[in-house]
Amino acid sequence: MVFLYRQFIELRLKEIIELGQGLLDEPVNIQPKILEDHKLLELWKPCRSILEKIGEAGFWPKMPATKLDNVGRLVNEFHDVDPWGINFRYSKEKPSRGGRPTLPDLNRMGVRNLYRVMRRLDFFFTAQLDGIDYFLNESNGWS
Question: What pTM, to 2 d.p., does this model score?
């Protein structure tokens, strides 16, 4: 379940980066390899920049930095526990890497809290993507 939540965050960040760039006159400079990778922090940096630039461009009211800071904090928490997107997928490393447990210090998890946090992230990402989609369609004449 946690692996799928992490995948959801990764895919939403990539979606905002790809679609958000289309709204900007001066797109955020990103390395194309970032979109092929699974590192949430590397994805969050351009995603945040894009959302800030969209607000500055006047597509919608500028978002408070605290809201973006909170999303970044949550993305960072996932990144800290699972930087490459495999720790929640596999219980142990490959034997060639030592076969150690991938999450040795994780004894328990607040599943209800995780669910609530993920719902809030879902609302945040969906609102951003709905806004981006609306203005992309508006600029393309709803064709």
Answer: 0.90
